[in-house]
Amino acid sequence: MNNNIENATFLLRLALGGMSLAHGLLKIFVFTLPGTVGFFEQVGFPGWTAYAVVLIEVVGGLLLLAGVAVRQVAIALVPILLGATYVHLGNGWMFSNANGGWEYPAYLTVAAVAQAMLGPGRFALKFNGDKS
Fold first, then answer.
1. Average pLDDT of the residues in 75-85
2. Where residue 131 falls among pLDDT bands split at 50, 70, 90?
3. Are 68 and 124 in contact (CB under 8 A)?
4. How many C-beta atoms surround the C-beta of residue 88 within 10 A?
5. 45 phi and psi, to 5 degrees?
6. What is the mean pLDDT of residues 9-37?
7. N or C: which end of the chain has fewer CB within 10 A?
8. End-to-end CA distance of the chain
9. How far apart are CA 119 and CA 74, in angstroms?
């Protein structure tokens, strides 16, 4: 890849990793885990999935920031982001609508797919067997 693509991929990775980490920490420290479980159940998901989502968002966000297993983490985020898009679908297009619209999680889904396709970009930690 040329330098501009490597740099752009790196910036996308930082943005996606930071967003994922922030949303996971939001569920822990602001909404609390019991509150997040309750919300998941309220919108029709099994409560236990809240724990899986928080784990993937926090650990995945850290891995993305470090540039480790980038393709795998980005792919793991896609079902979470599609779930978020589904939850916000009835709220209209704009995320500034009451309870948030669907355009932001839909955009993040596309960003995660693009990250999975691109790989880690610059400044990524790589380990044996990491083909990113």
1. 98
2. low
3. yes
4. 21
5. -95, 150
6. 98
7. N
8. 13
9. 9
Query: Confidence band (pLDDT; 50, 70, 90) for 96?
Result: confident
Residue range 46-75: mean pLDDT, rounded: 97
Long-range contacts of 80-85 (CB under 8 A, 24+ apart): 80/53, 80/56, 81/105, 81/106, 81/108, 81/109, 81/112, 82/109, 83/45, 83/53, 84/108, 85/109
Q: Are 44 and 50 in contact (CB under 8 A)?
A: no
The residue among 114, 110, 113, 117 whose CA lies nearest residue 132 is: 117
> What value does the mean pLDDT take over residues 89-113?
92
Quote the DSSP letter at residue 11. Answer: H
In the numeric block, which tokens belong to residue 78? 């896609």
Cα–Cα distance for residue pair 80/73, rounded to 1 Å:
11
* pTM of this prediction exceeds 0.85: yes
How many Å apart are CA 63 and CA 84, to the nearest integer? 21
Residue carrying structure tokens 């993305």:
64
Q: How many angstroms separate the CA atoms of 40 and 52, rounded?
A: 11
